[in-house]
Design goal:
By secondary structure, the chain is of the alpha/beta class. Helices cover 35% and strands 24% of the residues. The strands form three sheets. A seven-stranded mixed sheet has the order 1-2-3-4-5-6-7. The chain has a six-stranded mixed sheet with strand order 8-9-10-11-13-14. A two-stranded antiparallel sheet has the order 12-15. Strand 1 and strand 2 form a beta hairpin. The longest helix is centred in the last third of the chain and has 24 residues. The radius of gyration is 19 Å and the shape is globular. The relative contact order is 0.12. The structure holds zinc ion.
């Protein structure tokens, strides 16, 4: 298979980061996992398992916590459970789903491999590591079970896929951008220092980056509602605001599309105008 892989490691402020990249037909995707204070945050993808194993073995890991169920975050969970006998924790929304083998479209299996089944335990509102208590912050939107992790000792915040990039252009069909906006606002009420994103990695000036993303999404929301009130259809709005046809849209048969953001904004808008 013409899947190209790349794997890098670095350490920033005591956080050991592994970044796996897969490329196929001009589409390049990456995902990080992190180890700090005996905690592995997310497990990377099954397609990068061979590259991840030396990293996992070299680290001193007591427990695994997962930000959300997507296969690029859970791909090596079954290995970590079966071979390294590590306890795994995630929010309860997709616990059951993860005990079964992967069922997602082929293009996702090409990039990320087939996630094996694993049995995680439900996270509470907080958990403890060797030297710290962590907040588990419910931050749905990207996925219904999404959580962020805040180390109360160091102020280091792990945002999973809440951020990814400032100016989101395409999202998964299941993502609700209105819920993402609420989650960004929620996370910004916490006191934190360093921010680590599963895709963008370490964010310099993390708080400002999250604020800029929130501002971008709120502006997008206003623009979409205005265009709707001017009589444009969702597809017309998409074509006007997001004219670029990203390869992932075609490759995923529309599971990734800018249209999902517009639909979520308008659905929310219509709910509010009807109930008003
Ligand atoms: Zn995700």
């Amino acid at each position: 298979m013409l899947l190209k892989k790349h794997f890098t490691k670095e350490t920033i402020n005591n956080v050991h980061m592994a970044n796996g990249t897969v490329s196929f037909r001009g589409i390049r995707l990456n995902v990080h996992c992190f180890v700090v204070d005996g905690v592995l945050i997310d497990t990377n993808a099954k397609s990068l398992k061979k590259e991840c194993i030396p990293f996992f073995k070299q680290q001193d890991i007591d427990q695994v916590v997962i930000t959300h169920y997507h296969e690029d975050h859970t791909g090596c969970a079954s290995y970590l459970q079966q071979e390294l006998h590590l306890p795994i924790y995630m929010s309860d929304g997709k616990l059951e789903y993860c005990t079964k083998k992967a069922d997602y479209p082929l293009y996702r299996k090409v990039f990320w491999g087939s996630r094996g089944p694993f049995h995680a335990q439900a996270l509470g509102k907080t958990f403890k590591s060797r030297t710290a208590t962590w907040d588990v912050i419910e931050t749905p939107g990207h996925a219904m079970d999404h959580v962020a992790f805040l180390n109360q000792e160091t102020g280091q915040l792990f945002t999973g896929d809440l951020y990814c990039q400032e100016k989101t252009k395409v999202v998964l069909r299941e993502e609700n951008i209105i819920t993402t906006i609420a989650s960004l606002k929620k996370v910004l009420t916490y006191h934190f220092e360093d921010v680590f994103c599963s895709h963008a990695g370490y964010l310099k000036n993390g708080r400002e980056a999250l604020q800029r993303k929130l501002a971008y999404l709120e502006e997008l929301q206003g623009t979409v509602i205005q265009l709707h009130e001017d009589g444009h259809t969702p597809v017309e709005i998409r074509n006007q605001l997001f004219p670029k046809k990203y390869p992932i849209i075609l490759f995923s048969s529309g599971e990734w599309d800018s249209l999902h953001m517009i639909n979520a904004i308008l659905e929310n808008h219509l709910q509010h105008t009807h109930s008003a």
